[in-house]
Amino acid sequence: MSCPTLIGRTAELARLDAALAQAQNGSSVLLFVSGDAGIGKSRLVETFARRARERDAIVFSGACLDLAEGAAPYAPFVAALRPLADELDGDELARVLGESPRELGALLPELCGRPPDPRDGTERGRLYELALGLFRRMAALYPAVLILEDLHWIDPASADLLAMLGSNLRRAGLVIIGTYRSDEVPRDHPLHTTALELERSGRAERVELTGLSGHEVTAQITGILGTEPATWQTRSLFDRSEGNPFFVEELLAAGPTSTELTASLRDVLLTRVERLGPGTRAVLRAVATIGRGGDEELIATVTGLPPGELEFALREAVAHRLLVVSGDGYDTRHALLREVLHADLLPGQRNRLHSAVAEALEGKDVPAESARHWYAAGNRPRALGGFVQAAAAAQATNAWAIALAHYERALRLWPDVPDAEARCGLSHAELLSRAAEAAMVEGETDRAVALTEAAIAEVNPRERPLRAAGLRILMGRVHWVAGDVAAACRSYDEAVALLPAEASTRERAQVRALQGHAFMLQSRYTDAVVCCREAIAVAVAVGARDLEGHARNTLGVGLTMLGRSDDGLAELADALRIAKARDDTWELGRTYVNFSDALLWAGRWAEAAEVGMEGVNVCRSLGYGRTTCMCAAGNTLAALVRLGRWPDADRLVDEVNDIDAPPGQRWGVTLAMAELELRRGRLEGVRHHLAAVAGAVARSDGKEIVSSYHVCAAWLAVSVGDYEECREHVRAGLEVIRDSEYTRVGPQLCSIGLCAEAALGGDSEALLKECREFLGGMTGTPEPEAYGRHAEAEASRLTGPDPGAWRAALAGWEALSEPYHAAYCRFRGAEALLAAKGSRDEAAALLREAHEALTRLGADNLRVKVEDLVRRARLEPVAAAETSVPGLTAREGEILALLSDGRTNRQIAESLFISERTVGVHVSRILHKLGVPNRGAAAHRFRDFEGTAGL
Fold first, then answer.
1. What is the pTM for the complete model shown?
2. Which distant-in-sequence residues (6+ apart) come within 8 Å of 235 by Cβ?
3. For position 184, what pLDDT does the model report?
4. For the chain, which terminal residue's Cβ has fewer other Cβ atoms within 10 angstroms, N or C?
């Protein structure tokens, strides 16, 4: 008994319709529809789904499962995407699945098959990246609607994926609607943080449904009965239901007795059930026990009803609107009914039903559901084995939080099962270590430490040295994930001590490779090289090609950072070949990052840009957009900035700006963008980028990120004339790298510091001495050597003009094809010539060349200084910079032209294929450069320029 039309909800439905319109224009919208159970969330989205299909959208709908003791990972997405092949033709389907369809098996098991076994926790992030690509490609074909119901039952893996989609799908033409019971999402619920963060960031909206008004309840009852009810009946139903549409329907369906105000809704629901035949009641109890989506075969097995009686019972339950058809199975019309039916079972009856369901599910490859039912039936031995299987299945789909929950249940059951080891096929120590690994990947490092310690306590190192060493290796990895590198190294040392020195084992190769990696990230390159050489020798001896590739990757970095660039790059080339041959996707991304970084260090910037860009594309296509892709992008940007290929850098920034990467992975891109803005003279942009990375710097003890931050901050301080601030950053940066093997930025810090000392008339001796000491320990390092010459030239400003020092510095930058610093050296060289009463013609030529380069680059601040020196020296004026609009870059000119047409930031972003946030940054710069207060004034200035340009 239900109303044939949707009552009320006019504003809410209009918001959903508007979301579809936004998707049809290329934007993405995420809406959370919340409210109490029975308030009409499903009815609203079902009505919207019909309207969306009428407007040529494709609609995918799935629901979360109420599996309190065995949540299935990605359940709503699996259910929603199941009809994908029916919605698309063959070519469209191939395009949507992309280049790695098998990797999507966790979301499309029927279509893509079982996903490959995960190598480590990074595979989950890759799956999320591939899911992003799938939805982007799908929405590129048709406007798409993804409906995810009952998010109050969402599993952690699905919650993470939903957060990823909400944060990154902003220009995909997709509407995502999630429904949930607002009273069942407490603060510790997986959905609470996800929804709150997305709503705060403006990437999601909430549509809150409240009860119907009295007039709307009257309209609902009229729609159900076909005639307007008596006033007393409407008032009674409204008071008891509080405007909840489902409660109105159930109270009305219960008949005349429902007018008794003392009747509870539970009694009302059971009254409807008790009116039916015994077979139908048995079917309803079975469906409530099975949970959502029980098929006819399973219901028959559980109830034992003959086919004819079963069909009659199902038809009767559907006809009375107590059951609904759900895909290929059946479910109660509302979750409240399922809860009431299950709670009404007697204990013995409940145990027998759950046992029957669990027995029927055996062999159907649904271990989580099977284990849940065995547990509910009180059969602990069979539940134990089921939870271990369910954990392994969840782990195979990178649903680590679910895997951990299953392992924890198994650990709690273990003491109650005498033959636990035989049933599970593994020891208690192995179960502890598996749980520890799941906890580590999920970020529950305290729990991972406790579990690993318990496993270590159960393994005698004298009897099982390899297993004991393996557990120390696991402990080291846990400490590493927790950010405690020193503790990780201690655990690795313990593992090495347990392994026979003469033995060549996979464990030995693994621990030495991990030690080398840890040392490399601590900038202990000599130690890293020693560890990696041993790891490679052992890995080759035992045929561990994966560990060999990992160790060669680290070895390449260590050798390059110690000045042996040719040897290091050769090792990295070998590592890249091994990763490609093994299809080791994570190691492939890691190698692209390290290879491009080593090429940067070696001064081979064009190659670094090429390898880095290849890495960006490969890593993003493989699903590592938030991790190795961002690291490779940072190296690529650094190379493009140095080479003066700034338009290419801008395009890369536009490509990766929409990726919602964590700060620890994004800092390379952020600092490279800051360095680009420093060269362009856009100092507000520099401040913004430094503020964005400051938190990650404060939390890190990594020498590279901290010293690189101080380089940019010192350069900014010089640019604004705050030379004391510059001194502080130079001092802090040198303190970080002093007495370490990470010295690559030392000469650069010294050169910036000496620029400040020259401006202050200070002392150059200490910085020069330290710069020379840095260079004395380096070989084959052209960029630090160029900075060394640059530092010597800056120091000459304190002792008297020295054009020769600037010529030497210029030669260093020209050898590296670095146009910005070369232009700076020409500027300072000309300044020195003029101060020394040298050749005015040579000075004029240097300034002319500098001006041409800076104009071409768009380095406005330094260009203005060149022009000022030309005026002050009364030299022949240099040609004015040519841009589409005076003072603006080409991209800023494009944006101003579109702005003057009245376009919004979103429309401009869509026209230029860049992010809306990037447009906002450009608009702020345009207003600042033009000296105007708002967009209208900027458009007026543009039209004035257009009007005079042709005169």
1. 0.69
2. 214
3. 76
4. C
